[in-house]
Amino acid sequence: MTITRNRRVAIGAVTTLLAVSLTACTGSEPGGGGGGGGEGATAEEIEAALEEGGSMTYWTWTPQAEKQIEAFEAAYPNVDVTLVDTVGAGEGNTKLQNAIAANKGVPDVVQIEYQSILQFQLPGQLADLTEYGFAELESLYTPSTWGAVSQNDGIWGLPQDSGPMAFFYNQEVFDEVGVEVPTTWDEYIEVARAIKEDDPDRCLANDTGDPGFATSMIWQAGGTPFQTDGDQVTIDLTDEGTTRWAEMYQPLIDDDLLCQVPGWSDEWYQFLGDGTIASVALGAWMPGVLEDGVPDGKGKWRVAPMPTYDGTPTNAENGGSTESIPEAAENKLLAAGFLKWLNSSDESIQVFMETGGFPATVEHLESEEFLGHESEYFGGQKINEVLGGGAADVNEGWQYLPWQSYANSTFADTVGQAYLDKSPLLDGLADWQEENVTYGTGQGFTVNGG
Fold first, then answer.
1. What pTM value is reported for the model?
2. 360 Cβ partners below 8 Å, 6+ apart?
């Protein structure tokens, strides 16, 4: 199995159309835990199951999986783990939904993006890991990633990685134009103007209407437009943080300061390499994307904290995923042992980090080895000092919609229109809200439209 990091991330950004119905598949009550029907085990029972052994399946798209499984099977030689490459997040969601619906071939452990947890949890399709003693692991992880997996009175996975946002920029371009790294969004817009005035074919950034980027930017602005409590969902895309982002971002659209190039396209990689696009604001996994996909940028790129609205450090996540145990898994004891080892043992996390993974565990994010790493691609910069600091500044309280994949698929026809005709983002957000209220209501949720 070979999955390059840029391919993995790009595919993970692809939207999948999956309906989430409160009565789907399991017949659980809305918002129910799906917590194993009285199952569960102590740490001693889980360890005994690992020593006894057996077979299990693990679905993932991470490139580190093979080496992690090798290390696990060396520690527990009686356990045989079958690895299934799901290629990317969208494909993985579809495959998992189909397996659950057919009640056949459901994996024992599966990788799921944070934004998709509720999609599977609310219908009762994920096992509640509280019953396996996983609540005691909370202190190992950053608050934002633990918050993503612990919702609705249960624990639905263990964080694998995190994606605190950072500002990645081409130092060579900045020097040519004579601009400084922006620390506020007002300065960001000034830099965008200066770069465009210096060369009309060059832009500070690109954006054609990316829902994942937009929601992360709303998060960073302090917005909490989506709130879910069981089958009760509130959508308020007029809240203070969402409005703050929309009003800040509108001039970039109105004044043609953004390159109209889709992210993850061949042209995008080319423009990042030749300096046509001078920066990206994305998750902490971006160094691996640049190293793999933009080799001509070696030595030119640097990383800085995200610009903010008032100079106070504040951040959001962009991307990231967990591993979960489906409620229909056949080997939950083995799955619990494997999952705990996979995302909390030092041995596994070291393997994950060695090949570009950005951890969610506080100990590793704060380690001297991690923080002291000097990146050759980034001109010797200790990039993890910036990226790790960004993880500590992530705003708490963010939630995704239970049908976030569907919501993302409607972004282009609502908010995305502003990028095409320079109409107000706030109008597009109102249309997006209306679309999601209608959809969520049709799926059996009680939706309050703000």
1. 0.90
2. 141, 142, 145, 159, 160, 161, 162, 320, 343
